[in-house]
Queue: 2 jobs
Job 1
Amino acid sequence: MGVGSFFTSKLDEAIGWARKYSIFQYPFVTACCGMEYMATACSHYDVDRFGAGLPRFSPRQADVLFVVGTISHKMAPVLKRIYDQMTEPKWVVAFGVCTCTGGFYDNYATVQGIDTIIPVDVYIPGCPPRPESVLDGLMKLQDKIAVQTQRF
Amino acid sequence: MRGEEILQRLRDRFTGAVVETHDHRGDHTAIVDRGALSEVLRFSRDEADLRFDVLMDLTAVDYSRFPGREDGPRFEVVYHLFSVGYNHRLRIKVRVDEDDAQVPTAVDLWPIANWFEREVWDMFGIRFAGHPDLRRLLMYEEFAGHPLRKDYPINRRQPLIGPRQ
């Protein structure tokens, strides 16, 4: 291993460490999972401990798209557009079983998992997921961010 | 006014047009002919001792796979009326066939019927003659078919954007 690749990998690590503790999220909240998202974000569970305490309400300023709640076929183009508006690097968290698979909404109106529309990094199942599950998913996302090849 | 008296008023006033009445579990219901529907609704709203000033709900039922109802008219359009002044209720039903799924509109009687009738058109494909703007209410324009009909396949999807590559 040359000196150059040694420094590149160390730089990757440093950027990964910085990025995983400065997650600016965009909460795309459409349904009841939003209550659980709020519980996680507030002081009792305190998502700020993980550096994800500042939601940005513009996708252009966000790193992580939290898709929270049922996505209907009518809403799907909106979600796709929000995702396209986010700048790289970006990650997506499917929050709740509806976004993971469609949940029990096996009907004409509901998208059967948002991974049919946009790529997803972390799936958090549950109807709705407990805040502990959300924090677990967030930590898994942090692990993923820390070890990936950083583009900048 | 008691429910039984309301039904008696309708039967007396619209002899022959009131096909059937019942008060199953205290819900007084009159099933009327489609031709007399507008008149029955207007009478229920305007008559001094009925005065049903609220259209609480307007919906439809698809009986195509209902046991014992396979041969009859496929749809029933259901009107739930309420009187604020008298605190009494009435349910009016009208039966329509699939080939001629159309009933007169109630928008001129209760403006709220506008969106109710758009929803029924969207979900069941029943037309309302005289409706000012009969477009889909909930589904998108590209959607084909009417999803609450019993013959709409339960797992048929019509996504607006296709699966990603």
Job 2
Amino acid sequence: MVTKRIWQYRDLLLVFAWREFVVRYRQSAIGIIWAIFQPLSMMVLFTFVFSWILDMKISDIPYPVFFYAGALPWTFFASSLNYAIPSLTNHYGLITKIYFPREILPLSYVTVALVDFLIASTCLLGLMILYRIHITWTALWFLPLFVILVIFTASVAVFLAGLNVYYRDVRAATGFLIQLWFFASPVMYSVDKVNIKLKLLLFLNPLTFIIENMRRCLLEGRDVVWWQFLAVSIIVVTWAVIVYRFFMHIERSFADVI
Amino acid sequence: MSSRGSLAVALRDAWKKYSLREIFHRSLREDIMRLIRGNGQPLEKDEFWALQGITLEVPKGECVGIYGPNGAGKSTILKLIASVTYPTKGSVEVFGRVAPLIEVGAGFHPDLTGRENIFVNGTIIGMSIKEIKEKLDDIIAFSELGRFIDTPVKKYSSGMYLKLGMAIAVHSGADVLLIDEILSVGDETFRNKCIDTIQGLLDQGKTIIMVSHDKSLLEQIAHRIVYIEDGQVKKEQANIEHIIGAYHAKQ
């Protein structure tokens, strides 16, 4: 049902995403390099902080690769939310005049973040070669982990964008929420070094599992525990289904409420 | 005119309730009360009926003009037909694809060129990318924009916006076109061209519903004019003079 609805409007999703991509990079000097710039600048900053200011041992992996591998999925998540949350209210003129499945709007911003992600991941590959990371078969886990990341990100984006139509507080809280979520996700640390009680707490955040395992399978040649993967997948998909039901329910009155 | 006779749009005793409240937020208590009482029953404080039992049947190939004072509920009718909002009571049925010709520039992105905006606006009103590519030359020709088609639309005048929007809408292949008071921006020549095109679309069996305060425009193209006031159909007539007479007698 979900996919059929979006499939019928796939051209609209594509055009919205293309529009956003063109508009975002057309009148900018460095264009699509922006896609790499964000995770790259996080990487440089963290490497600097943890090498010289704090002088802490975070991981055995060279810091630049370690931080970039975490910043990459994180940037996808954060940038999706940032753009998707105000997407419905920003298109007031369309919502009150024309029918189309409303989730197309937030999803188109997730699509743009996805393209950014693909561009920025070439840089990760470069770093892995540069730092002579031994790539093993476990790297294949990256793909299913990525699928879960996309489903999770899309459902959080659609949920918060819909809620923002009713309560503009969501928009106002976005920056704060993303900041908190950042510290709850293992971008500048690894859960490996954390004690078990705290670990369980951190794993309440699906991003913890996703980001941590993406890094392990790519850089450390470690396998993902399959039952853990299964459990997280079930939780994420269930959440996504609930969000979609909820969205379909509130979508009908968007034009009256917005 | 072969397809005339079967319905394109049917509103049956459609009621629409709106809230005046700034924040549209029903509390849980209200939701429970609504469950007990049933929806669409007595008005709460700050609520009003924008439509009060509108019944309107539009056969295929007909052009219906909707006329009436501001705030009568004309645009709400178009919103119901476009499935943007839903009736509180009653039913709305539409047979075929609807393309709302929305006001000047909605859905256009200022930083994109006219050509690029054809893709954005076209897909919004339900065309596929393939369809747009096929009709691109016709759309550009109709818009009369010439070399301005590759200029960002933020540099367009409102007349140019309208020409582009109209060009996309008439090529959309939709069965029902909704036109909400927009033709007034274009120049005389373009207006006449639009009227000709609308006649052509009607001959193809397309249905057009238009809201306008422009008497002469309605007289020229509408087969039937519906006079709306206070959310109700007050008069239906083929002749505008009768409608106008009724309107002015009240004032």
